[in-house]
Design goal:
Distance between the termini: 126 Å
Shape: rod-shaped
Radius of gyration: 55 Å
Strand order of the largest sheet: 1-7-2-3-4-5-6
């Protein structure tokens, strides 16, 4: 509003003030019901939250609104249905009765409310002085003003495992396994010189084995000495003068483990 103060009544008859009205989204518009096309209205005001503003070719203004309420509860329910449940708006007319001068195909629907006397408020200013709108309806109106959440723009897709890019260093056992140097794979292709060297090693090995068989004096690894076997007669006597007591006791224990039936004789 250029010339009018917040909450000041502005009528269509005051052409200068009426033309200076510049409603915006988020403001509250109070409409004087007797100045509308409602049949036999009471001498009361109804409040609307402005959601969208459109300018017509004839200079008039059309508002998309959300009905907040009015002192007449019965009429308030009808206005809820008319504005909050159907496609309806408010037309700030330039004449009374209103002459819709829109071009062909741009005429207003019959459901639109035509108003010629209003009061324009900021949302906070109206909330501070009004006394006929419930707190629940005011909170609902605040939600209407919040911008709609939009999905974030699609970014680049995450690279799959194994795709080009810096690889993450291994952890735990994988890191230890990676630290152990791997043996180079044997080359299956041998040169003639390599084959000749292998043949020479084989001949030298065969020669050393043959020389060892021809020399029987060469010491061979001794076999593990085995103790003499003990006859049943010696076991029945319980001792052997040829075998020391400690050694005999050890062999008796081993025999007991192998032949449990001898236990009854000892």
């Amino acid at each position: 509003m250029a010339d009018a103060e917040e909450g000041e009544t502005t009528a269509m008859e005051d052409f200068r003030s009426w033309s200076a009205l510049s409603p915006t989204r988020g403001q509250v518009l109070e409409v004087y019901l007797p100045s509308t096309d409602i049949q036999d209205p009471r001498d009361e005001w109804a409040a609307f939250l402005i959601l969208q503003v459109s300018n017509r070719l004839d200079g008039s203004v059309v508002l998309t609104v959300f009905h907040l309420g009015c002192p007449d509860k019965a009429l308030g329910k009808k206005l809820d249905v008319r504005f909050n449940l159907t496609d309806c708006g408010i037309h700030l007319c330039l004449s009374s009765p209103c002459v819709d001068t829109g071009v062909e195909g741009d005429s207003l629907p019959d459901t639109y409310l035509h108003a010629t006397k209003v009061r324009l408020w900021t949302f906070g200013g109206f909330a501070a002085v009004q006394d006929y709108i419930t707190a629940a309806r005011m909170k609902e109106a605040e939600k209407k003003l919040k911008p709609a959440r939009t999905a974030p723009p699609a970014g680049p897709r995450r690279a799959r495992k194994g795709a080009d890019g810096p690889a993450k260093p291994p952890k735990g056992k994988a890191a230890k396994a990676a630290a152990v140097p791997k043996r180079a794979a044997a080359d299956p292709k041998l040169t003639p010189a390599d084959r000749e060297a292998l043949r020479e090693k084989l001949r030298q090995t065969r020669k050393r084995l043959q020389e060892g068989d021809a020399n029987p004096k060469k010491k061979r690894p001794r076999e593990r000495e085995r103790p003499e076997s003990i006859s049943d007669e010696e076991l029945s006597r319980g001792y052997s003068p040829e075998v020391p007591t400690l050694q005999r006791t050890s062999w008796i224990w081993k025999l007991e483990q192998s032949f449990p039936r001898w236990k009854s004789w000892l």
